[in-house]
Amino acid sequence: MGNSNTEVTNEYGADQIQILEGLEAVRKRPGMYIGTTASRGLHHLVYEIVDNAVDEALAGYCTHIEVIINDDNSVTVIDNGRGIPIGINHKAGIPAVEVVFTILHAGGKFGGGGYKVSGGLHGVGASVVNALSEWLEVTIKQNGKVYRQRYERGKVAYALKEIGTCPKEETGTTVTFLPDKQIFTETTIFDYNTIKVRLREMAFLTKGLRISLKDLRSDDHSKAVVTASMIEEAKEALEGKEDGDEQIEKLLNRAFDDVEEQTKSKKETECSFYYEGGIKEYVKHINSSKVPIYDDILYFEGEKNGVYVEVALQHNDSYNESVFCFVNNINTPEGGTHLQGFRNAITKTFNDYARSQKILKDNEQNLSGEDIREGLTAIISVKIEDPQFEGQTKQKLGNSEARGAVDNIVSEKLMIYLEQNPSVGKTICEKSILAQRAREAARKAKELTRRKTALDIGALPGKLADCSDKNPENCEIYIVEGDSAGGSAKTARDRATQAILPLRGKILNVEKARLDKVYGNAEIKSMITAFGTGIHDDFDISKLRYHKIILMTDADVDGAHIATLLLTFIYRFMPDLIKEGHVFLAKPPLYQVKKNKDVYYAYSDEELNSILNEIGRDQNNKIQRYKGLGEMDADQLWDTTMDPKHRILLRVNMDEDSQSELDLTFTTLMGDMVEPRRDFIEANAKFVKNLDI
Fold this sequence. Notes:
The protein is α+β, with helices and mostly antiparallel strands. Among the domains are: 24-215, Histidine kinase-like ATPase, C-terminal domain (Heat Shock Protein 90), CATH 3.30.565; 222-264; 279-439, Ribosomal Protein S5, domain 2 (2-Layer Sandwich). The strands form 5 sheets. The protein has an 8-stranded mixed beta sheet. Strands 11-12-15-13-14 form a 5-stranded mixed beta sheet, with helices on both faces. 37% of the residues are buried.
């Protein structure tokens, strides 16, 4: 085949087949083991080591786990479990601890009797963390002695050695590791709050286990201190003048006070979680910004066919379902057999109860599962000896025995509870019947929309300025606040790839509305039709017409509110658009600076100061503070916010590891309860910049 004179430069033979020894495979393809080498993958390293300690707690040997972010950004995880075995593993010929940290798919979780249940399905946790760390040290307390071994980029730096003694009753494992900058090129800086959220979740799921977090990194106030010293110098200079400018002195005094206050403020550096009530307290936490429709948090537990089941649930007056599933403390965002068993149980049990109590008449149709789950917050946690997940990412449980176990335990214990608490049963059934009526109204509204669309010659919204390219991968749609900005955007855009959909006013707050109201809102209907995917149960991402959905609102309080309303709608009814990375926020400039014929744009106060320092703070500088997109003409809007070569887009991400916290944030910000929202704003106001009121 081909020309015999062609020189072959890339040979492919037996010697070209690479054998990656030890942990080289992990360093070569880290994404296969931790998903990504960006921030999420970095934090995954911490969770893997903590998971091992939690497994000791599940086995009944660990009561306290301490996580420390050290000053050099290494992380230490300390547990008071049994300590990783230090004896020689005769198959490998090396200490068991060395096997755990240097050999993939090795551990006490493969039927050897070390653990009955464990989150570590693949046995890659400790060894992967070791492979992706610049160095890792493990210290073990056992039998009155202390042992230590160090590894560097996955390889043994020195053999396991005894380094001291300890009281015989003291046992446990301490692991300290420093992420490798060669692997994590984007960032190696751990985020305290990200780790905090995950550790709180672990504590909720393991009742009686205390998990602590400390951040030993020093606050970086160097910038503030420099600024303060500069202000002091300026004040001294002014004091030397007899005709000192009183106005400037007032400004300097105010700035100095602000910096002094900023320097005094300390971030949270320590927290601890302990929940005797376990997942009951988890439900209470998630419902803290909602209004429960009854006082009890229902809790059922039991074991069947080797599956230990815990379920906690409570309905609130919202219209959204918040159900989170876990297997051996691992979040399964795609559900699986345990979720199927739960849904089967509550649908059958509530229908049987409603019929037995004559709440549903003989001629009335059954309540759907969706009706019963309106406003439901629930945690489903199962412990299983040999969990089978669909894929290494552990997104979905596949064990058939989990379905039967959850179904059986929830059905039996829920019916007993309802018979003993008829007022609660009646309250839930009445809410479900209202949801059923709203769902039927929504179905009719949806069918009407479909018929109108089919009859319309132009099925897309009339105010949509569509793009000419029909390949969704090339196309983007700007959701623009107001007709004025919409007009500028339509003039400015690249007509081939950029579509514009202007919205009039603020859209419906879907956090406070049932499905029938959502389908009845004109602005929401325009977005649903333009995107092409449908919403809720009809959602189909393969029909998405634009691979970038860009929310472009004014850089003020109203604009931020509109963006939050839009994000709430997308999160509740089209969450896969966020999960798949299709949703963005445009970042228009805050200032335009003109000096002679030169024009500069600043996207923050810091950038404005930098520009003024560079060009000089002359009186002929003309500084314009943009209050809204409508203040920019088409050319300015293109140059600053829409030109792919120069614009700034912020991708909206969803961390499925902390989805319950995300759910709580949306409810807090957009729900009915004022007090939690006030608390949230007071706690986070210090992080807000460029706030216009």
